[in-house]
Design goal:
single chain, 124 residues, mainly beta, 7-stranded mixed β-sheet, 11 strands, 49% strand, globular
Length: 124
């Protein structure tokens, strides 16, 4: 079992920045690929970004490429999402997810463990 707890969400103005954190426990963190997904009201959960177990491989949705950066600290069992140049369309609940896959999946079904989510609201 893996427990994931997100933090760092909040309200920010258009063009602003936020940094989300996800704390993992319950299994060797370095054995897990990690990802961030988001879900806006009335929409399906969508892939945002993912990072491989060792941090060498990252993958981003086109909508966030160049604005968001995923990183991890295996010594602290943490994964981060730095979000810059935020837009109102980035408003959503952001979820941290963990997978045992070698190559981080982009599909929700590729992830076995999920956090409870943290709300990000970008005002125009």
């Amino acid at each position: 079992q893996v427990q994931l707890v997100e933090s760092g969400g909040g309200l920010v103005q258009d063009g602003g920045s936020l940094r989300l954190s996800c704390a993992a426990s319950g299994r060797t963190f370095s054995s897990l690929a990690m990802a961030w997904f988001r879900q806006a009201p009335g929409k399906e959960r969508e892939f945002v970004t993912a990072i491989s177990k060792n941090g060498f491989l990252t993958n981003y949705a086109d909508s966030v490429k160049g604005r968001f950066t995923i990183s991890r600290d295996n010594a602290k069992n943490m994964v981060y999402l730095q979000m810059n140049s935020l837009k109102p369309e980035d408003t959503a609940v952001y979820y941290c997810a963990a997978s045992g896959a070698v190559v981080p999946p982009r599909a929700t079904y590729g992830y076995d463990y999920w956090g409870q989510g943290t709300q990000v609201t970008v005002s125009s």
